[in-house]
Amino acid sequence: MAYDKFDILTSTAVPLPIENVDTDQIIPARFLKATERKGFGDNLFRDWRYNQDNTPKRDFVLNNPIYGGKILVGGKNFGSGSSREHAAWAVYDYGFRCVISSFFADIFRNNCLNIGVLPVQVSADFLQKIFTAIEKDPKAEFEVNLPEQKVTILATGESEPFDINTYKKGNMTNGFDDIDYLLNIKDDIEKFAKSRPF
Amino acid sequence: MSAQKTLFDKVWDSHVVHQIENGPEVLFIDRHMVHEVTSPVAFLGLKNRNIPVMHPEKTFATADHNTPTINQHLPVADPLSANQLKMLEENAKEHGITYWGLGHEKNGIVHVVGPEYGITLPGATIVCGDSHTSTHGAFGAIAFGIGTSEVEMVLATQCIMQPKPKRMRINITGELQYGVTPKDVALFIISQLTTSGATGYFVEYAGDVFKNMSMEGRMTVCNLSIEMGARGGMIAPDATTFEYIKGREFAPKGEAWDTAMEYWETLYTDPDAVFDKELTFDGSSIEPMITYGTNPGMGMGISKDIPTFDAAQGGASTYKKSLDYMKFGEGDKMIGKPIDYVFLGSCTNGRIEDFRAFASVVKGRKKASNVTAWLVPGSHKVEAAIKEEGILDILTEAGFELREPGCSACLAMNDDKVPPGKLAVSTSNRNFEGRQGPGSRTLLASPLVAAAAAVTGQVTDPRELMQEPVAG
């Protein structure tokens, strides 16, 4: 599925300075019963965001009107656990287009890249600087520049480069997906398939 | 002399269809396992593109995540679950995919039935929209979990794009103590590496402990590879592996078996092959393990005390949040903590060997009155073996009931939910907040530890209830 192109994103950010945020927290299993990709944002961080009687938990960051924006900033090892792409869908559907952390779990990172959410891995130091900037001013803005592979704290001008492979970067900036690419080399795949013993 | 290769390199390199410049590799997939939860949107994608499944004969579907574990002969009550199951059935039918739905004699957890029917083979590439696909690495396969976009990719093209992971080898030497199981070995490794210690790596498990392990045990270990962040884990196939596979329904037969064996016998790490990272632990130092926190890396020997904040890995605030959720304190002993629920099952510990272990402890004892126990076989085949081997009689005598196969309380998508605040000893794979039901608290452990808890009503060292066989 083609998705929105990603170029330069300038936005405020929502801080979640917790380590090892697993995909069961991002979207609990009981919300995985849908058969279409719709409405997952409503249940993003469901059990951190709502009490069991469905009233909002006042101390959770998504319920604090001071914070907002298209960037989610999480602690180390973000997105560990289950492979559920529903977690990335929930992040996207809520309105985030970028997640910044000092470390991502593999499957979550791939899932994000496949649906047009940019995972940006920065150093632990720079992540702390981002958290500090938001703490100082919840309206602090950040620039995530995909063409230049650089994230900047606009208030201080400090920036740090980030990695992404050239192929995936091209897909993100153009809104292409992998399946189109693979269907173009279908003959090679079929030839290879014939050589497999089982 | 040809270049020295690891087991992982041998299998990976033989599946590369295409290398994208400055990008991922295109890897051919031999086996694609599909279940009801992560596939509907992928099938919808095929429909929107108006393309078929490229190789339905390499695709296998089973319903497991969202199925009830009682009264499976009745219609599924929850309309959303029923709809998801119906979608899988319709999609499988439309695309000509082998389908083992609810009630089918071969139905069970995807990672239990794959090996049981010989779908899982050494040297194969296997994917599924489930992170515990790493289980199949026990056979010397490259097996890993994928997201739904990737499920669609594999359905459409029988390939997946992946950057090649780095290589790690974990050696466990020596011999395990009595009462220490493969689950304890895995929880020990994760406690040493943390939940992100192997991220970016594909792990090979080596050493005497794994050589002497049954296929069920190897599956348990490889299953938990994802819990330390690894893309997957694998063990070189050997006589134990080949003996397990031979004669199973989908395994090669006759001449095809001989050809396969010729290839499979080349699947080992060459003596001078190089790993990006290598770790060695002494197997005899491992004791029965239990977790005390909200990720699988927060585990320790069952006789130990919960570490203090400063001794723990990771941020102090995250650690404190975790202990607060569990209602535990620094320095607490786990032994003696009263428990409410016991869950035996899942793709980690839902195989026949796990039920044998559980039964060996509860035999001649009674379930504690304060404990609710859910015993859920991984498949109908496991269920049948439990009955044939007389294990069901032992369980019934001790006051336990057997449920029907499925993922059940491991992820609590169905009705098998541990209530808020209740403490469960579980043989499954994740102790995340709310994993077994909103507000539930989970202690991960082996089937032996689960059995000891089930009959004593508290966290108990199973070795106290077991008779060590006299050597000689």
TrEMBL record, chain A:
Q: Name one GO biological process term.
A: L-leucine biosynthetic process
State which Enzyme Commission number(s) the record gives: 4.2.1.33
Keywords associated with the record: Amino-acid biosynthesis, Branched-chain amino acid biosynthesis, Leucine biosynthesis, Lyase
Q: Where is the Aconitase A/isopropylmalate dehydratase small subunit swivel domain?
A: 6-123
What reactions does this protein catalyze?
A: (2R,3S)-3-isopropylmalate = (2S)-2-isopropylmalate
One Pfam family from the UniProt entry? Aconitase_C
Q: Its annotated pathway?
A: Amino-acid biosynthesis; L-leucine biosynthesis; L-leucine from 3-methyl-2-oxobutanoate: step 2/4
**What family classification does the UniProt entry report for this protein?**
Belongs to the LeuD family. LeuD type 1 subfamily.
The record ties this protein, via PANTHER family, to: 3-ISOPROPYLMALATE DEHYDRATASE SMALL SUBUNIT (PTHR43345:SF5), 3-ISOPROPYLMALATE DEHYDRATASE SMALL SUBUNIT 2-RELATED-RELATED (PTHR43345)
Supply the name of the protein. Answer: 3-isopropylmalate dehydratase small subunit
Recorded source organism is: Pseudozobellia thermophila
From TrEMBL, chain B:
Q: Which GO terms describe its biological process?
A: L-leucine biosynthetic process
What cofactor is this protein dependent on?
[4Fe-4S] cluster
The cofactor remark states: Binds 1 [4Fe-4S] cluster per subunit.
UniProt keyword terms in alphabetical order: 4Fe-4S, Amino-acid biosynthesis, Branched-chain amino acid biosynthesis, Iron, Iron-sulfur, Leucine biosynthesis, Lyase, Metal-binding
Looking up CDD domains in the UniProt record yields: IPMI (cd01583)
What domain of life?
Bacteria
Task: List the EC numbers from the record.
Answer: 4.2.1.33
Establish whether keyword RNA-binding is in the entry.
no
Instruction: Report whether Manganese shows up as a keyword of the record.
Output: no
| Enzyme category, top tier | lyase
The record's annotation in Gene3D superfamilies points to:
Aconitase, domain 3
Record-listed [4Fe-4S] cluster binding positions = 347, 407, 410
Give the catalysed reaction(s), semicolon-separated.
(2R,3S)-3-isopropylmalate = (2S)-2-isopropylmalate
Pathway assignment reads: Amino-acid biosynthesis; L-leucine biosynthesis; L-leucine from 3-methyl-2-oxobutanoate: step 2/4
One molecular function GO term is: 3-isopropylmalate dehydratase activity
Q: Aconitase/3-isopropylmalate dehydratase large subunit alpha/beta/alpha domain location, by residue? A: 9-457
Q: Record's InterPro entries?
A: 3-IsopropMal_deHydase_lsu, Acnase/IPM_dHydase_lsu_aba_1/3, Acoase/IPM_deHydtase_lsu_aba, Aconitase_4Fe-4S_BS, Aconitase_4Fe-4S_dom, IPM_dehydratase_rel_enz, IPMI_cat
The task this protein performs is described as: Catalyzes the isomerization between 2-isopropylmalate and 3-isopropylmalate, via the formation of 2-isopropylmaleate.
Task: Give the multimer and partner information.
Answer: Heterodimer of LeuC and LeuD.
Q: Which family does it belong to?
A: Belongs to the aconitase/IPM isomerase family. LeuC type 1 subfamily.
- What is the name attached to this protein's record? 3-isopropylmalate dehydratase large subunit
Q: Which organism is it from?
A: Pseudozobellia thermophila
